[in-house]
Amino acid sequence: WLSITLRSLHLVGIVLAAIAIFGNSPYRVVAFASMLITGLGLYGIELWSHHQHWRELAGAFTLLKLLLVLVIILMPNYSAGMFWFLLISSSLISHAPKSFRHKRLFG
């Protein structure tokens, strides 16, 4: 249930981030902080259950996504482009065949 709860809260953060970027919302920091915190939590769960996750494409990509969310927080001028990149690339990677997602990149 922890993973499901974190995924749901992560989606809330994504929606709030979209509103903050493309609308007018005072919740910008909350949106991106919730994306970052829940993303770290989900990554931690993945590493706990699959210790080699960071060596695979999906795990390495997750680290990149977390870094880009941090960049969005620190450099808001790039937030719209980064948001679309994160949204589309996340969808592509998460729906790619298992053999692609779990391809080992390191070691």
In short:
With 107 residues, this protein is an all-alpha fold.
Note the beta-strand portion: under 5%
Q: Estimate percent helicity.
A: over 70%
Largest sheet: none
Could you tell me the number of beta strands? 0
- Beginning-to-end CA distance, first to last residue: 32 Å
Would you list the SSEs in sequence order as H and E?
Answer: HHHHH
> What's the alpha carbon Rg, rounded to whole Å?
14 Å
Low-pLDDT sequence parts: none
**Mean model confidence by pLDDT:** 91
Query: Helix count?
Result: 5
Q: Would you tell me the structural class of the helices and strands?
A: mainly alpha
Tell me, briefly, the overall form. Answer: globular
Textual characterization of the structure:
The chain is mostly helical and 107 residues long. 77% of the residues lie in helices and 0% in strands. The chain has helices spanning 2-22, 28-49, 57-74, 79-95, 98-101. The longest helix is centred in the middle third of the chain and has 22 residues, at 28-49. The model has no long low-confidence stretch (mean pLDDT 91).
Which labels suit this protein?
107 residues; 77% helix; globular; mainly alpha; single chain; 5 helices
